[in-house]
Amino acid sequence: MENMIYSEFSKYEEELKESFSQKYSLPDIEIDLIVKDLRTIVMQMIKLMRDGKSVHEKFFSDIILNSVDAIIGFDNNLKIFLWNKGAELIFGYSKNEIMGKEISELVPVYLQDKGEIEFLVKEVDQKGFITNYESERLTKKGEIINVSITRFTIFNENKEKIGSVGTVRDITTIKNLEKELREKEKLGLIGEVVSSIAHSLSNPLNIISGNADYLLMDKSENDEGYEELKCILDETIRITKSIRHLLNFSRPLNISREKNNINDIIEKAVSGNKFLIKDKKISFRKILNPDIPEINIDKSEIEETICNILTNAVQAIKNSGEITIKTGSCNDHINIEISDNGEGIPKVNLEKIFTPFYSSKEYGKGTGLGLSIAKRIIVEHGGEISATSKPGKGTKFFIKLPVK
């Protein structure tokens, strides 16, 4: 552009000189000075234009490179040619590590198998853009994050497609908050319904169990009707326990913290669960780290959590097996691992085990609240609980509690 302006100005220099000479009858030396000054002015204008363009380009370049959102450019072969600081922060890859790599580096395998890359390419090719597409992406550490993607096609001066540029926003925190809000709303509604039903059933059950217990006082085991009355009493007791679980679930937790040794709580929980074994041959293996610090927890709530997990472990073992309980500490957390070599949990069900009222047990063998209450207690303590399982090989529960 600059060379073109200089060239055009040179063409008109002689015409300018002749015009000045004819119109103003100026000497040649003065005309040369005027033309020279004009050339200087033109050169200064070009410099101002060039500097202005440079500042303009730098301004937009800084916006792109320093954006908190990831801005990523792909060529026609879906290889990365643009990677800003936002992309480095979100995905963990430096510019040198990722440049020239394919888009598949960032897309989880299960989404690749579903054809998501091909879908996005087709959408952008057909529409020229895609906006606020929510999906998941893979970081350098192997973590899955929730993202919102906007992407559009870019062309060269000849209107030829040279690739696409996309902005990727990390919405993991937003998604987690939305999920937590939905769960709280759902639990609140469930709690109201459960509390109403439980209170309605309590009085009739108390009357039934009270009368059955009264009638049994005058009967011995061999008397007619004894077994029927005993069955009524046992079943009402079982239902009453289930209702108590429902009421505990519907009420807000009142955590009362004080210093406790987690090993002592585990010892008590294991001792209590030995009565559940009955005719099974189950051994408890304890690997308790004696050096773990005391932590501020609600003793009864944590004991209930461990008991619920141990109860599930006992029920998961058909005839014989082993339950292992380990404790340890890492940085600012106490770690508890409870594993069994029972039947295990199918992958499709593993995601549901902490969901209220979900149970894979036979009818009448559980309310489906034990693990959901356990999770509620651990989360209320600022901790984490998770599980892994392999059908036929057993299940492991992992609990992390903060040291405060």
Summarize the structure.
By secondary structure, this protein is α+β, with helices and mostly antiparallel strands. It has helices at residues 2-24, 28-66, 85-91, 95-98, 109-113, 116-127, 172-216, 226-250, 262-273, 299-316, 347-350, 370-380; strands spanning 70-74, 80-83, 129-138, 144-155, 161-170, 258-260, 281-287, 295-297, 320-330, 333-340, 384-390, 394-402.
Q: What attributes does this structure have?
A:
single chain, 404 residues, alpha+beta, Beta-Lactamase, Helix Hairpins, 4 domains, five-stranded antiparallel β-sheet, five-stranded mixed β-sheet, 12 strands, elongated
Structure notes:
With 404 residues, the protein is of the alpha+beta class. 51% of the residues lie in helices and 22% in strands. It has 4 domains: 2-65, no CATH class; 68-170, Beta-Lactamase (2-Layer Sandwich), CATH 3.30.450.20; 175-252, Helix Hairpins (Orthogonal Bundle); 256-404, Histidine kinase-like ATPase, C-terminal domain (Heat Shock Protein 90), CATH 3.30.565. It has helices spanning 2-24, 28-66, 85-91, 95-98, 109-113, 116-127, 172-216, 226-250, 262-273, 299-316, 347-350, 370-380; strands at residues 70-74, 80-83, 129-138, 144-155, 161-170, 258-260, 281-287, 295-297, 320-330, 333-340, 384-390, 394-402. The strands form 3 sheets. The chain has a 5-stranded antiparallel beta sheet, sandwiched between helices. A hairpin with a 5-residue loop joins strand 4 and strand 5 (161-170). Helix 7 packs antiparallel against helix 8 (226-250), helix 9 (262-273) packs across helix 10 and helix 10 packs antiparallel against helix 12.
